[in-house]
Amino acid sequence: MKILTASQLKEADEITIEKQNISSEELMERAATQVFNEIHTRLQGADILIKVFCGIGNNGGDGLVIARLLIEHSYNVKVFIVNYSDNRSKDFLSNYDKIKNLSRDWPVLLKGEDDFPDIKRGDFVIDAIFGIGLNRPLEGWVAKMVNFINDSSAFVLSVDLPSGLFTDKIPEEGDAVIMANFTLSFQTPKLVFFLPDTMDFVGDMQVLEIGLDREFLSEVTPAAQLIGRQEARSLYNPRNKNSHKGSYGHVIIVGGSYGKIGSIVLATTASMRTGAGLATVFIPKCGYEIVQTALPEAMVLTDVNYEMLTDIKTDLDADVVCFGMGAGRDKSTVGAFKELLKKTNKPMVIDADGLNILSENNELLQDLPENSVLTPHPKELERLIGEWKDDFDKIEKVQEFIKKHKIILVLKGAHTFVFEQENIYVNNTGNAGMATAGSGDVLSGVIAGLISQKYEPLIAAVLGVYLHGKSGDISAEKLGYEGIISGDIAKNMGLAFRDLMSENETDSGAG
Ligand SMILES: NC(=O)C1=CN([C@@H]2O[C@H](COP(=O)(O)OP(=O)(O)OC[C@H]3O[C@@H](n4cnc5c(N)ncnc54)[C@H](O)[C@@H]3O)[C@@H](O)[C@H]2O)[C@@H](O)CC1
Ligand SMILES: Nc1ncnc2c1ncn2[C@@H]1O[C@H](COP(=O)(O)OP(=O)(O)O)[C@@H](O)[C@H]1O
Ligand SMILES: [K+]
Predict the structure, then answer these.
(1) 372-411 pLDDT, tens per residue?
(2) 325, 353, 428, 453: which could form a disulfide with 263 (CB 3.0–4.6 Å)?
(3) Minimum CA distance residue for ligand 2 atom 16
(4) Which of 259, 271, 193 is closest to 226 using CA atoms?
(5) 80 φ/ψ angles, rounded to the nearest 5 degrees
(6) Residues enclosing ligand 1, CB less than 6 A?
(7) Right CATH number for 232-237+246-501 from 3.40.50.300, 3.40.50.20, 3.90.1150.10, 3.40.1190.20?
(8) Which 8-state DSSP code applies to residue 436?
(9) Which CATH number fits domain 2-219: 3.30.70.920, 3.40.50.10260, 3.40.50.150, 2.40.110.10?
(10) Which atom of ligand 1 is nearest to the CA of 91?
(11) Which residues define the annotated binding site for K(+)?
């Protein structure tokens, strides 16, 4: 699903109004009716007090339509206008008239702190104060109003996006932003819903299709793409009946050191459970029996050194080399990595200490094969590119970095982002149960396993991240968030593939 910017959405609105020959008020009615339908489906006429807070722009107009429909369906509704200026939008005004005609209980105009209404814990608050039109931080009593709603502990549903949140920048410390429990957003999700700095404001999220012009939506270049099941499915290559293990490639996983051989077992298991035809590990001698015992399916080559990598001697013609997990950063290991880079031409997967070595030895970046996939978590990324001011600054710095070095970067997190040239792919599977040691090692194995099966590195990264998260979701379904260990994610990879191609998505409990 495309993620668009506020200006692209405004353009889509205008084109839709023109091409469908409707008024902006009709489009507002259509959008807000979708919100009403969602609320009605969930509340089923429940007798609770719904407090709708409307601004005076089009987000406020949406709020008025939602309130009118709720009143027409006999809900107990109280409407408040956060009347911070007299500059009301046209469609706000016509809906203001409509709601006044409908009920004697006119909307209450709020003009300052003294007017703040009571909000109780059990109330249902609809936040339609500001949407994508916000252009500066909230100030004065309006900011206080937002904080007042947040302090109430009422359930808050935000319309389009939480009021106070921008679509293209991160609020400053102390800025007032609604902390929504749920956000119903129009047509496309906004990028800020997935950034670590801002995702907590959004709560659970659902996107409502409001019928904007299809041609515009299919042609517009998105700010980013959200990868869900449908997108992942389109990337999948089914296995050919007439095939053999050689058809699915050979992965070499290089890394490990004394006490950290487990990371190799995890990555290698993951690559095989993702479908690689053959897997070889190259590890220090201390890991020989461990790997042979834990994973008899893999072949093992060892370094001359017992504890760490010092000389990576392989003349195997692998389809992909994955380097770094558990490798450590000893001088001799750095030297061995340097030699490995020199003799590798095909795209590699680099994780963990591979990334740390690159951070400390910047000159090695130029030896990375084009289209290699780097998989840092935020700390590893900071070591690679330096500090950033906020998430938008981070995105800019990452894009500069990947273009300079002609690589693909997988930034791991609650929503993992894949960066390739100008493109950004945002993952929507996975859950907090995956915040457990070794789940990153599993991801590297998954991506390497896909590359060995001839998926392009970018596709391997995007699909791999999706499947890894889905396997985490399936694991959580079986074991609970706390119960997952990263080996489960590797073990359940096959179920993630099955889910991808089955008729119905597994109810994964993704969070
Ligand atoms: N395709 C869509 O996405 C649709 C969007 N609609 C709604 O329209 C909204 C956008 O409406 P608007 O453009 O009127 O904008 P908003 O309703 O988000 O904001 C209202 C106005 O407040 C002013 N303002 C901005 N920052 C302020 C601040 N800090 N303090 C005081 N005033 C400030 C701006 O001039 C803006 O025009 C969307 O979020 C959505 O709710 C729907 O009605 C129709 C379809
Ligand atoms: N809260 C979360 N929600 C979704 N996925 C998560 C969450 N926390 C961690 N993950 C996923 O788990 C993996 C953790 O990787 P990493 O930090 O490298 O762990 P390790 O170094 O222990 O292997 C990443 O793929 C990340 O996206
Ligand atoms: K809002």
Answers:
(1) 999 999 999 999 999 999 999 999 999 999 999 999 999 9
(2) 325
(3) 440
(4) 193
(5) -120, 135
(6) 9, 13, 27-28, 31, 55, 57-62, 84, 89, 130-136, 138, 159-160, 186-187, 210, 212
(7) 3.40.1190.20
(8) S
(9) 3.40.50.10260
(10) 43
(11) 59, 127, 163
